[in-house]
Amino acid sequence: MPSENGQARYRIAIIGSGPAGLSAAAHAAALGMSHVLIEKTDHLSDTIFKYQKGKHVMATPSNLVLRSDLDFDAGKREFILETWDEQIASGKVNVRLNSEVTAITGETGNFTIEIKGGDTIRAEAVVMAIGTQGNPNKLRCPGADLPLIQYQLDDPGEYFDEHITVVGSGDAGIENALGLAADPKQNNIVSILNRGSDFARAKSANVKLLEEAEAAGRIFVRRETAPAEVRPGELVLETRDGQETIPCDRIIARTGSQPPRGFVEACGIDFTSEDRGAFPKLSPSFETTQQGVHVIGALAGYPLIKHCMNQGFDVVEFLNGNLDLKPADEPILAEKFSALPGVRSVDQWLETFRNNVVILQELSPLQMRELMLDSTVAGYDAGEVIFERNDPGSSMFGIAEGSVQVEVNPADPSITVPIEQGSIFGEVGLISGRRRGSTVRAAEPTVVMELSRTAALKLMATAPSAARAVNAISIERQLLQMFGSGLTKTDVAELVAAAELVDVRAGQTVVTEGAEDKDVYVIRRGSMIVEKMIGGAPVFLSYLPAGSYFGEMAVVDGSLRTATVKAAIKSEVVRFPGEAFVALLDRKPALRDKAMAEMASRREVNSFIESRKDSFGSAVDMYSETARFLIDNGIGEATDVLLIDEKLCVGCDNCEKACADSHDGLSRLDREAGRTYAHLHVPTSCRHCEHPHCMADCPPNAIKRGPDGEVFIDDTCIGCGNCQRNCPYGVIRMDAKPPKKPSLLNWLMFGAGPGPGEASYSWRKKTAEKKGIESPKVAIKCDMCSGIDGGPACVRACPTGAAIRVTPEKFLTFTKLAEDAG
Known about the structure:
By secondary structure, the chain is α+β, with helices and mostly antiparallel strands. The protein has five domains: 3-134 and 259-319, FAD/NAD(P)-binding domain, CATH 3.50.50.60; 149-253, FAD/NAD(P)-binding domain, CATH 3.50.50; 330-464, Jelly Rolls (Sandwich); 494-616, Sandwich (Jelly Rolls); 627-821, no CATH class. It has 25 helices and 42 strands. The strands form eleven sheets. Strands 1, 2, 3, 6, 7, 8, 9 and 18 form an eight-stranded mixed beta sheet that branches. It has a five-stranded parallel beta sheet with strand order 10-17-11-12-13. A hairpin with a 5-residue loop joins β38 and β39. α12 crosses α13, α14 packs antiparallel against α16 and α16 (578-587) crosses α17 (589-612). It is globular, with a radius of gyration of 31 Å. The termini are far apart.
């Protein structure tokens, strides 16, 4: 070991003894390279050390070869730590504990590492493997400083008889929740909060375990829910239906962590962007913008243990002169790229995708490799179909080379819209879960990358730049589709650049009647209701589904807000500054004329209501109350809903019988169940929500959307019950799959079978038992009689016309009231 002025000088200084740092140090020791492993705590591998007691550590991806002088396989936390401690000791790794690095200065071949307390270490190269565990994201809500919040769970077995809420739906949060609920003797009531409906950040194995715990009643999984306020002994939740308060003795916050950016930048290292979650810029050999300093592990954006250990091995190989070494995933990616046209290396293809596809441009090479392992690539000849209208699919595509044509008119395939190289398509299916809305063909020889729904959601959740790019493209396309009038991307560029995504809770007011603000809004998800104060009371005017816009009236003519707009359900809106919208209208007279015409129509409705309030005020009040009742019962997010007019219904049950006869004896409808207001009844039947809750966490992806928006469950259903638990309206049930029912003639002549209509559960169970089989359960819900001529059987079978299926925008309008009153 060379020294300078009596001070030790090493070939490599490795900072941090997590899996990446340990693997790097072990390999340096095996190669006989002078090295030092610097750890600020009094033990090795603080990352794994801080895992909860007894945690099962996974070794994923399973198809990736492990490169390391240390052993690692799936197993208990304690066994892995013990194994590494023994191997580090036997491998004569030079470890320095209790040494916190405060600064790194110098240049390649001559770095000085300052240690808290005044010591220094000299090294020719530095490998930073410090991870991000010491920088957890704090809760950001009132009460976030209360002592019932903790950001670490050491031993879930320490807690008894508590209401515990885990905030965070990544692997750490799920594993903490599972640990706290594992032993029923602890008598904990455990909840886990997920801001979304999908567990995009977590491993599929963890998600499966969580779903099993939820099904068994051990854990309450609260989707589309976030903490609103922490109070002593309780937690206020922001849910899809408004605020809810639950008892809470302890909060385990596992909301991710951030790189120690200040320290890293002080070392001369640049990040890929200004985003809080951005990672350092790295070369393929892990070298940063500060030459001689390398970054590996979670700080590099590649947090899986096996990946980290491979990086530790590889970086030492690079520093030892082995510059031809390829990453362990090279054979997997080479096989993936082999079907693409031309002859290019893995690195060349990775750079092609990263440089050309806009949503990928700020990813590091390491992040690109991880994403590519979860994605597919394909090449298409000019004119070749990539997907067709009404195809199922929720993946998203990025165009690396070439371009595509979108056939926007099913009656005339020659009418197309181009999407150029670098852009994306298929994002509508990703966001909404709907079937493909158009046929997409390659306009020329084209290379695309297809991201599965899971990979795309994970990318957007972990890479802020990708989320921004996807949102900007989807907003741009929504504007062009809504406004039309020959607009181009250039025309709406200013609006898109100024757009802001805003989450709105159910019942929250977005625009207030009489206010002076001048923003314009587009509804991206959810729906809004419009109300106007008349005679001192709010009167329902209209319903605005996803894809509508509002707020332009006050912007165009400078008036005060003429009505109040509030969220019918948890929604997401895009807010545009009014001045940018006015500037667009000034540039596009046709768009201004269209906006003025729509404004005139709305003002006519407002004037009509105000002028007729005295003559049919009770009818106005009744309609407003009816509209609110319907929205409270799920119409606010429906695309198609069954309503029964009880003035016309005679209780014949033909609707239920017809439903059963159309679906193998299993009715999807319960006419008597559900709520009623005045004479309007909402039976227990699927609403076919715009963003179906039932689609979240369906392991076999058995829930699909049909070409007309119907949500149905196909034969791949495994009966897990996730959809039933996720549906907020109780319209899905788990029922035994019926054996074949004897014909009506056999029933009439020989008494065989249960007779017409739905076969009772007891008959199905008894029949299955006679045959010596266990009748499997499947999820049952309305599918709007998809594939059956004539449409929904329940409506066709109603002899009095009491049963109707409607879309909310057609029903919830003041026009109907005007027609009735006229």
